[in-house]
Amino acid sequence: MSFSFSLKSFFQWPDFARKPVFKFIAKRTGPFDKTVVLDRHRVYILPTKAGLIFLLLLLLLLLGSLNYDKSLGFVLTFILVGLGNVAMFSTWKNLVGLRLRAAGCLPVFAGEKAVFALQLENPDAATRYSIAVTYQGEEFEVIDAQVDAVSLLHFQVDAPQRGLLNAGKFRLYTEFPTGLFVAWTWIDLSMQCLIYPKPATRAEIPVSSSIEEGDQAMQGAGLEEYIGLRKYQPGDSWRRVAWKAVARTDELVTKEFAGGQPQRQWIDWQALAISGTEARLSAMTRLIIDAEEAGRHYGLRLPNLEIEPAHGRTHYAHCLKVLALYGY
Amino acid sequence: MDINNHKFTPVLIGIHLVAMPMYTRLPPYVLLLIALFTIWTLLIIAGRIKQPIAFIRILLAFAVIVSLLVSYGTIFGQEPGTAMLLMLSFLKLFEMKSKRDVLLVIFLGYFLIATNFFHTQSPWIAAYVFVVVIYLTSLLIIFSDRLSSTSFKTRMRISMRMVMQAIPLMLVLFILFPRIQGPLWTLPDDTQSASTGIDDKMTPGSINKLISSGSVAFRVQFKGESPAQKDLYWRGLVLSDYDGKTWRRDDAPENFLAEVSYVKEETKNIEYTIMLEPHGRKWLYSLESLVAKEGQYKVTRELQVVTTEAINSIYSYSMTSNLQVTNKGLYVQENRKNLLLPDGLNKKTITLAKQLRREAGGDAEVFAYSVLDYFNKNAFSYTLTPPLLADNAMDDFIFNSRQGFCEHYASAFVYLMRAAGVPARVVVGYQGGTVNPVDDYMIVRQSDAHAWTEIWLDDKGWVRVDPTSAVSPGRINHGIAGAGLEEGRLPSILVSNSSLLLQLRYQLDSLNHSWNKWVVGFDEKKQKELFELLGIEDIDKATLFSWLVIAMTLSGALVFLWVFKQSEKKPKDDVAAYYYSVFCQKLEKTGLMKEPSESANEFLDRVVQGFPGLKPRAGFITRSYHRIRYGVDCNDNQKKQFISVVKQFRIK
Fold first, then answer.
1. Contact B563 A63 (CB under 8 A)
2. What distance lies between CA B217 and its chain's CA centroid?
3. What share of chain A is helix, strand, coil (3-state, %, to 5)?
4. What is the four-CA torsion angle of B170, B176, B178, B181, rounded to 10 degrees?
5. DSSP B571
6. Low-confidence ranges of chain B (pLDDT < 70)
7. What is the pLDDT of residues A208-225, one digit of tens each?
8. Is B56 left (phi over 0), alpha (psi -120 to 50) or beta?
């Protein structure tokens, strides 16, 4: 395996597409638009270390057969040669013909790891065993691609910065069925992951900058009057989910309160007494997280954009996305 | 990668499968260690004990070496080397930690299984090796199956399929790979592997003991008619030195003949090819008398055919003999040597010889006949169970026991001849042979082993005299089974009464013969013959090599297609689904790909959006697909239409 790792660096030179010499490689590795069939040009094959030892064994057997003039020695040697040949084709075939699709990536905060998912579709009538995915030399997952089924493979990428993270090329490889050969492919499915800004710690945010508006008297959920349970609707705060009831019924229910006006909060770029774009974005991210968790309604004011206060997962995601892509 | 204990078990079984044919050959100490290692490994697998620490492993390695030294006296050479590798693979089980260790053991297995061919290359061992190769390959699958999701059955199926797919390339290489003659190196004890058949010395009983063996000495294919039974004297060695008990080969340096042609009448020459079973000796057998040779062997003045290497595998050679020709050479040294007798022994015999010679007049030939006559008339008997002879063996035999086998008669006859001044010598080899009606070749068995004599007659040269014929003419005319010997001592194949069984045995031997001829004995000559069958004369190595490259490419392409075809969906599983997927594949070229979540109708909508021109045909295909797959009424005609529309479907 280490044998093929050394090749990795060769195939991982960036920007193949821009250098005309390497256009032929770019043609094979992508980037593709989310989906690709691993055809014969895209799958490479080389013997593993074990394969090279096997080759040595074949040489020894051939020498022995020649020297002692044993016909059946030749037969055995040549059937093993044939076996090596078949092993090469079989290993290669274990990848060729697979259909790959980008299966998305959930947004993460900068500093975390983005998890990219791949869909593997095996159109054949035979299972393709032991297909592994590696990214930058690290192996993440091994699966068997079942007959006529779609399987998922995941790999993780460090997400140091906010914005859109390009996964770039990942590597699929297999040594099945003999371990004598390794077949691999480098594919770029133009997969991207949205990376939210890294949330600032609460200590980093000046207290005064957290400007709150709305009915101060209504602060705190305890002042609202509890009137009962209703079915969970998207947008309901996770804080109001009646978890005890959920445990009983296995259905998401929300505690409903009457009379209470939820708190409203403007998270304002201008009002933050912090310098630097990234620091501000980080602070705002923290404020959004806190506001969402607290069940408040919050709005966003950016130099070029304003988002009306609301709450819920969709609003939360929207706000964070705006921050993530600020300035793009 | 760490490996679980449960993966050990198949490897342990694998090593035992490899070692199985060797068990009978391995010395007891080695077997004992193997048993110990096996139990030990089983306990490790069961989780009762841990893998032994390095110190213990070193001790065990010492135990292995000591057991080999005790059993063989050395650790080098074929037998001890093989045993050593076998023990090492057992030892390796104790320190198996990574996939690499296991692969090493499997590769050792592939290598060790080949060492069986030193001992036998029968079709049976070939079949066994084939099975073991399939099993060892399935072990490779265990260790490349990362999720351990394959069952034993699946692994065996994959492995069997791969070995089958390996056969075309194997055949091509086997037939076309250039062979070389002679060894590249020899190990010190290579020639010590067991010798069978006729020995290079003869004592009373040495041929006798071969008679009960039904095993084949060699098989002969005659070009044309095979000679009569009584003329089938397969000459092996000439024994001239007698010490009173044992006849030996002349230990003087061998004098080779540059040419052996004494041919007068070409028409009476007999051409034949012999497939000699390995006998571990350095000589060949030929029909008397050899007149022409071809091949890598030499012929001595006594017409012995000798090789430089011991015959340790099936050896095929062609010869030409002529029944009428006799060896005319008598050299001074030979003359003297073939008159020698041990001093002071068998005085009565010497007196008898002189008396008979006097009675016969001066003529050596008449004298020889009178000796044969003497055997014939004096109640000498031909038996497989002669009594032991006293110190003066000849006296005891001629005047007392009068029971003997061919070696007794040959040695007594030569003794009498020499005592009366006629140069004489013993010849050992085989006499007779049975024709296999299945394939029309001749089988010569160990039970046909025989000893006869040659005497020098000044006007005729060396003349063959077989004293056994004077005692038991049936032996010479009808073979050993017709000699009236005790049947219980003869190999069962010779005395079998069941014609069905006999037929079966001939069939089996015929299979063996073809196997030996085309597989075991396949060499440069056979390669040439094969190409001559194709009309290509005198193929040289370069041409052979280019043929090899072409054939390898072709068979490689064939296997490639085979590998790629095997897992494609078979139409018979689900005709509609298969041809619908063909339709989808054709559309893939346009960039339209059916999502797994998409229904056929939804996909059709997308297709029509992108390519309105495809609407009629794509629509028909989608509707037919639904009807065939899910509809109740659907006749074959509709299916055929669907298939043909899919097949003709093109995207402009």
1. no
2. 12
3. 35, 30, 30
4. 90
5. T
6. 1-5, 181-183, 185-195, 251-254, 257-267, 293-295, 330-333, 484-490, 492-498, 567-574, 631-634, 652
7. 544 454 444 344 444 456
8. alpha
Q: What is the largest CA-CA distance in chain B?
A: 123
Q: Where are the domains of chain A?
A: 2-195, 197-224+260-328, 230-258
Distance from CA of B593 to the nearest CA of A (A): 9
Query: What are the angstrom distances between the C-alpha of A202 and each of A206, A282, A286, B228?
Result: 8, 10, 7, 114
Q: Which residues of A touch B522 (CB under 8 A)?
A: 71
Distance CA A83, CA B133 (A): 10
CA distances from B103 to A50, A214, B242 (A): 7, 72, 59
Dihedral sign computed on CA atoms, order B396, B402, B405, B409: positive
Alpha-carbon gap, residue A157 to A116, rounded angstroms: 8
Cα(first)–Cα(last) distance of chain B, in Å?
Answer: 52
- At B140 the pLDDT is 94
Contacts of A48 (CB under 8 A, 6+ apart): A1, A3, A4, A175, A179, A180, A181, A182
Residues forming beta bridges with residue A99, ordered by sequence position: A37, A121
Q: What pLDDT score was predicted for residue B169?
A: 93
Q: What is the DSSP letter of B47?
A: T
Question: What is the Cα–Cα distance from A296 to A312, expressed in whole angstroms?
Answer: 9
Nearest by CB to residue B110, choosing from A57, A175, A177, is: A57
Helix (H) or strand (E) holding B382: strand B381-382
Burial profile B436-472: b = 16 or more Cβ within 10 angstroms, e = fewer = bebbebbbbbbbbbbbbbbbbbeeebbbebbbbbbbb
Chains A and B: how many Cβ contacts under 8 Å? 174
